[in-house]
Amino acid sequence: MVQSFALTDKSKEAVDRIVLGTVNSSWKHAINVETLVSVIREPQQARRWLPHVATFFAEVRPDTVLQFASHHHVPVRTLKKSYAWVKARTGEHNSALEAEFG
After folding, report:
1. What pLDDT band is residue 58 in, cutting at 50, 70 and 90?
2. In terms of CB atoms within 10 Å, which end of the chain has fewer, N or C?
3. Residue 5 domain-assigned?
4. Is residue 47 part of a domain?
5. C-alpha radius of gyration, the chain, whole number
6. Quick check: is 7 in a domain?
7. What is the largest CA-CA distance in the chain?
């Protein structure tokens, strides 16, 4: 049976699966939720995980990024700072997420 991640399914577990599925799809080493949250909070510590965090901000839908942050108690101001730090170092950006930030 194929699992569907409909937009109405906003549980923490569903959001985590969507995020990790997107973030890990292009990389040899998989990041877990705890590490991703830690790196979002302190991107300067990202070294090994910078491509994953850039993928999180660039490829995950803005509403899902915000839900993931909310589920893991990452303040929006921290999310914005992390996004700006990652964008400055990688050039990866997400115009829709920037619009959500305001």
Report:
1. very high
2. N
3. no
4. yes
5. 13
6. no
7. 42
